[in-house]
Amino acid sequence: MEKVFIPRGVCSRRYDITLEDGVIRDITVTGGCNGNLKAICALLRGQRAEDVIPKLRGTHCGPRDTSCPDQIAIALQEALDEEAMNK
After folding, report:
1. 57-74: buried (b, 16+ CB within 10 Å) or exposed (e) per residue?
2. Handedness of CA 15, 78, 46, 11 (dihedral sign)
3. Residue 80 contacts residue 48 (beta carbons within 8 Å)
4. With contact defined as beta carbons under 8 Å apart, do 7 and 73 qualify?
5. DSSP β-bridge partners for residue 18
6. 1-25: per-residue pLDDT in tens?
7. Which residues pair with 5 in a beta bridge?
8. In the CATH scheme, what architecture does the domain 2-85 have?
9. Which of 3, 8, 14, 79 is least enclosed, having the fewest CB within 10 Å?
10. What is the C-alpha to C-alpha distance for residues 30 and 55, in angstroms, rounded to an integer?
11. What SS3 class is residue 87?
12. Where are the alpha helices (DSSP H) in 1-87?
């Protein structure tokens, strides 16, 4: 399944996620810290969403209560929930 997520409270503007049976097949981020987010996305591909969500969730960026990794975790959880509802 494909999901578009619009993050809140961070510099990045959009996440495009492809999830297949709970596995992150592809993820791209528009905006934000280009090199860091490309690296994070590369590390996430092929991983089970349920395994990476707790690792990313709660990460802060400076004084913000969230971060791009935290927002990715939120997006992945939403994608997992939607995938489960569509089965």
Report:
1. beeebeeeebbbbbbbbb
2. positive
3. no
4. no
5. 2, 26
6. 999 999 999 999 999 999 999 999 9
7. 15
8. 2-Layer Sandwich (3.30)
9. 8
10. 22
11. coil
12. 34-44, 49-56, 68-85
- Give me the residue spans of the domains in the chain: 2-85
* pLDDT tens readout for residues 21-45: 999 999 999 999 999 999 999 999 9
Give me 33's structure tokens: 């810290």
Give the Å distances, CA to CA, from 10 to 22, 50, 51, 72.
25, 23, 23, 11
Side chain identity at residue 21, one-letter code: D
Distances (CA, A) of 67 to 10, 22, 73, 84: 6, 23, 10, 26
